[in-house]
Amino acid sequence: MLRVTALRMAKSTTLTLPALAGCRIALALATDLYDTLKHNHQLASPLTSYLNLQEGVFLFKNGVNPYSGGVFRHSPILLSLFTTVIPTSRRLASILWTLSDIAGAWALVQLWRARQRAPQTSRDGLVAAAYLLNPYLFLPTLALSSSTFENTLTLLSLMFAAQGNASLALVSAAILLHLSLPSILLSAPLILLLSSSNGPLSQLASPRAFTPNDKKWIALLGEYVAYAVFLSVISTLVSGGLSWIPQTWGANITLPDLTPNVGVWWYFFTEMFDHFRPFFLMVFSVHLIIYVAPLCIKFQYDPLYAAFVLLGVLGTFKAYPTMADIGLFASMFAVFPELFPYLRHPIVTILLHLHAALLMPLFHHLWLSQGTANANFFYATTLVFACANGAALTDCIWAGLRIAIGAPEEGFSVVQE
Amino acid sequence: MNPKCRRLWFSLFLPLAVLSLHNEVFDEQLNIRSLPDGKVASRFSFTTVLVGASPPTPQNHSSQDDPRHYSLFPLALGQILHEYAVTEMHLTLNAGKWNYDHWGYPDEDGVGTGAELWAWMGDGAVSTVDERWRGLRNALAGLFCASLGSLDELRTTSPTMMFAPGALSNRTSTHSLRHASLPSEHVCTENLTPFLKLLPCKSLSGIATLLNPHRLFDADWHGMGLHVSWLPQQGVQVKLTFQTISDPLRPQSSSRDWSFASVFERTIQRSCPVATSSQIVVALPFGVPYTINPQPSLVDQGHAIFDVVQSGPLDVSLHWPSGFQYSTTRLAETTFSVRRTLKGYTQDNGQLSVLLRNDEDSPVNIAYLETMPWIIQLYLHTLTLEVDGVSRNDLLQNITYIPPVPHSRATLFQIVLQIPSRSTLKLTMDITKAFLRYTEHPPDAQRGWDLPPAVFVRLDGRPQRRIYAPALLVDLATPDFSMPYNVIIFTCSLIAFIFGSVFNYLTRRFIVLPVPS
């Protein structure tokens, strides 16, 4: 009897992913929201917008170096793909982006299974749904923002690392690095994950010191650098020079385009005094890097968790974030259900998110289209959004550490020294 | 000094002056024509030729640092030309929108709204072309009291096809072009005063007497120009021009009669003594009765010519006995017309739309140039060409595109198009508007930015005329200018708060405490 139920459950979960995938493809085919969403600054940043990608492809095909000017900031890898292999037809692109999301959901399910060390679980469908039905993720996909590919590659590299497939994990991470420079921070927990003896298994409840295998992580780092350099050489050959570096990677550091987004950089550097700009650009970039070592040291026994928390840091603080970045962080919560009892203020976090998610498009419209609001309105909602992300981030860290103490007992409370 | 005495001094020194000035020639001319819509177009032109002089180049620049001795040639300008080794230069300062449909082609091509400066300079000097270009525009800004210093790298382009050098055509390989325009420049009397100072007779005598600022800046359209070019057979020529479109119908709506006294509120009292020639050319009406006063010294091909040197005090007037009937018919000579608009109501994107109409029975080839500051990003892949609602991308023949660089370089977009006979071609292209740093906005930020006029040239027509589309105004999103400190404080506090919380959790140990009951 029990086996039958388990079998039925397994069947239902194996069907969930294809069913959800089918829904998503139907959504992509039935609705053509691209024209409504293409200028939406919350869904696509200047670095990921499909409009800019099309422009770059057009310039490249017409013999103008797309990296000689200001608008095209996509990686030469995407440029070469879209000029040769993939035609830039809207319908096809829409399907391609959805397929990328489906691959991401599949990778997330695999990651969950690897963490549970089970070939199939009853929560598979839920994990897939958490990714495919997350509006923070499917709206950027409908807007054809290339952050969809970044998310898929992030999940693929984590999945391959969790499965112990070092080469594929590092290749995905190197491609991801070319698509988005801040993802270089993820390489640390990724290499830790590959060289750790526990793999992706949940160790949060039973922390123990990490015994480093010197030789292995150096070799892994070398491999990662080798792939990245190889892709850089390819990129240089494709674009006919090194001008792609300041245009793609450099933009993450120098912030040439101050188009509003959901992050905290754009208005800060719009209002920044000219003589302080380089200093604060340095501060904001270093601020991102500063999280890597402490998180990797503290969560050395569970590097997948360190990667998850770092994704939250990137989604909150990177130079050109989109909704998709924080959507990935939100969807990955599904992989760590053991945390849920230990979260301190999930309702507050969710309400803050709801507040920001509703007001952001509204104030954006009031400021730029309606003209009845000003920039401060939208800025205020991005601050709320950052607060919501910060609340989620700190709650994750609290819960990830608190879980080691065990279930709360009557008459005792857990505090920090 | 009383007038008699002055006349005596003149008669004593004039022959001497003329003797020493045998290599400088000054000519002045005023062209006046009545337009079909009742307005009067006048063009003043003052030409000084330095006979036999070669254009300043970087090569002869260093060897010729001797003081310049000019009598008629404006010294202030000559020094600038030599300092920056400028071979050819054109500066125009215009106000208003030239109406090609009703006024026809202007006597001087450069009628783009605001300030426009372009110069051809030789390569190979110690200082680069860009350094000299910066010096030139700052020097001219000082000379003309205009904000030409704002014609900086953000607005400078090099559209060599549209702005070909006059006599340098075989030398373009050794010379470079720099072009910039500033449509928001307002032209007024402070620019006219330095303009008059460059004339040998100032506005004291000759045709320049008529340059009365009260009337000129009251005109429907007015523009001044400074053109320095090198004519191989003659020498270096400086041409100062002033064009106006005045409206005699404004005071009395039924009569289009005009005279110097009514249009300029001045008459010519005496001629400029150093002018070799001084002519007033009036285009005579065709096929309608009219009277012109006084009698012209010469009538040639429908033009009445008055010689100011010969005549005494002069007040030319033209009178139509038959009143004025307004007609909306367009001039036959302008068979090509342009309408350029920026569509879209949001502050972050929009669409550039250009309507090109060809009234001829044969297709016309047009070169179209946009020199946008970087704040407007063109999306070339959205470029569409339509004739009567039918997509005709085959009419696009050639694209030259230099993409903008944020915060530094302007866009140069130039295409060659064919407009089919008797049809209107509609060109559209998506654009996005940039978000600027708060220090990059002009003082009156909510007014918007003036975009430079587009330039069109008919490639088959002779002579090649530049046609300017009116300037556009673009509305950019503005930050709150009053709160840089607040934003810095809010954002930094938030980051510090999250950073602090994270490190608080990461660095402090967890302990279990019994709760006292």
Beta strand count of chain A = 1
Beta content of chain A: under 5%
The largest sheet of chain A is: none
**Helical proportion of chain A, percent range:** 55-70%
Q: Name the shape of chain B in a single word.
A: globular
Name the chain pair with the biggest interface and residue counts per chain.
A-B, 65 and 59 residues
Helical residue percent of chain B? 10-25%
Q: What's the domain count of chain B?
A: 2
Any descriptors?
heterodimer; A: mainly alpha; globular; B: 517 residues; alpha+beta; Immunoglobulin-like; ten-stranded mixed beta sheet; five-stranded antiparallel beta sheet; 9 helices; signal (chain B); PIG-T (chain B)
Sequence-ordered SSE layout with sheet pairings:
The complex is a heterodimer of chains A (417) and B (517).
Chain A (H helix, E strand, L loop, with lengths): L1 H29 L3 H4 L12 H12 L14 H10 L4 H27 L7 H9 L2 H8 L4 H16 L3 H14 L7 H9 L18 H26 L4 H11 L10 H6 L6 H13 L2 H7 L4 H15 L5 H10 L13 H25 L4 H28 L9 E5 L1
Helix pairs in contact in A: 1-5, 1-6, 3-4, 5-6, 5-7, 5-8, 7-17, 8-9, 8-10, 9-10, 9-11, 10-11, 10-16, 15-16, 16-17, 16-19, 18-19
Chain B lengths: L2 H18 L3 E11 L5 E12 L6 H6 L11 H9 L2 E10 L4 H4 L10 E9 L6 H16 L30 E8 L6 H9 L15 H4 L4 E11 L3 E12 L11 E2 H4 L13 E7 L7 E3 L4 E3 L2 E5 L9 E3 L16 E8 L5 E10 L5 E7 L5 E12 L2 E2 L4 E7 L9 E8 L3 E11 L15 E3 L3 E4 L7 E3 L3 E3 L9 H24 L2 E5 L3
Parallel strand pairs in B: 1-9
Antiparallel strand pairs in B: 1-2, 2-7, 3-4, 3-6, 4-5, 6-7, 8-13, 9-12, 10-13, 11-12, 14-15, 15-21, 16-20, 16-23, 17-18, 17-21, 19-20, 22-25, 23-24
Helix pairs in contact in B: 3-5
